[in-house]
Amino acid sequence: MNGLCFADVADGAELSPFAIPLTIQRLVMEAAANRDFAPIHHDRDISRATGAPDPYANTMLLQAVFEATVRQWMGLSGRLRGLRFSMRSFATVGAVLSGHGRVRARRPADGGGFVDLEIWAESNGAPAAVGSATVWLPATKEGVDEREGDGAEARAWRP
Amino acid sequence: MAGPAPLLDLRPGTWEDAERCVGRELARYEGADDVTMGDIRRRLEVLAWDCPLHYDEAVARRCGYRTVVSPATMLMTWAMPAYWVPGDPRPTLEDRALVPSYPFTQIPAPGKFMFATESETEYLEPVYPGDRIAASSVLRSLTRKRLSVGDGAFFLIETTYTKQTGEVVGIERLTVFRYSP
């Protein structure tokens, strides 16, 4: 199965961006997917009345973009263990929102190791959120892939 | 839209009211529905995110999961209560705009608006279709602040997510800014 193992990871390696255009339509689709129907995320009049420049991406959309960015890089065997970020600016309608990352540190652990990533989101190239993520990767490409359900997932998820 | 924008459905109060909530459990709540394949599919759809762990059972099992697994970052969605339940009043044009009924929207405070400023989550256990996610939220701190958007306060809310088995699946620390422009 495709996916990075711990030994594959180099300090400083940069993740490929994961980008999504923020049209009103896609923000409405996002609200339907994450069930946050707060109008600041899809209604121009209400978002502007709150002091925002326009409807903007919510926390759940940023979380998902970061997970997709990290997943796209590490493949199927890794586990997202932690995600932390601070907002820097509104990622508003009309922008392209993209997730980015870079390897900051590696820590061996039983069965593989943890990798700490610097992560950030850009909205039309400007910082929208900055933070960090921690993932667990297996020691070898077979580390997780040969396991079959019912219990293995808990060990792999929480090494 | 004609006329003034409707206010969001945030509970009014004073900063002293809000400070009295620090350290307290704001609420225990449960997602309106079980985790479903359809909800997972819509999460992938909106991002055009092709990850077979979230739609292909055979791939997910080969990767150590019991079956198709939810994206880790869907906990807030899975624990979200309904916007309406039987017995609630019917909507009218005069209603304030709905916001998710997370406990932090019901902290009594002066601010008319709110947005998130920081998010930190530990993901501890996988979530599968059929799981029902519940949550408990505690207000950990309140810090008054004036920002460019207005005068208000940061609320730090810690939420522990559990599934129906009692397993803790994630712990989230979310900071929101409650303010008036």
Q: What does this protein structure show overall?
A:
- The complex is a heterodimer of chains A (159) and B (181).
- By secondary structure, chain A is an alpha+beta fold.
- Chain A has helices at residues 24-34, 44-49, 59-74, 142-145, 152-157; strands at residues 18-21, 79-87, 96-109, 112-123, 126-138.
- Chain A has a five-stranded antiparallel sheet.
- Chain A is elongated and about 50 Å long.
- Chain A starts with 17 loop residues before the first strand and ends with a helix.
- Chain B folds into two domains: 1-35 and 71-84 and 94-181, Hotdog Thioesterase (Thiol Ester Dehydrase, Chain A, Roll), CATH 3.10.129; 36-69, no CATH class.
- Chain B is globular.
- In chain B, a hairpin with a 5-residue loop joins strand 4 (150-162) and strand 5.
- Chain B is of the alpha+beta class.
- Chain B is built from four helices and five strands; from the N terminus they run αβαααββββ.
- In chain B, strands 1-3-4-5-2 form a five-stranded antiparallel sheet.
- The chains are: A alpha+beta (159), B alpha+beta (181).
- Strand 2 of chain A pairs antiparallel with strand 2 (113-123) of chain B.
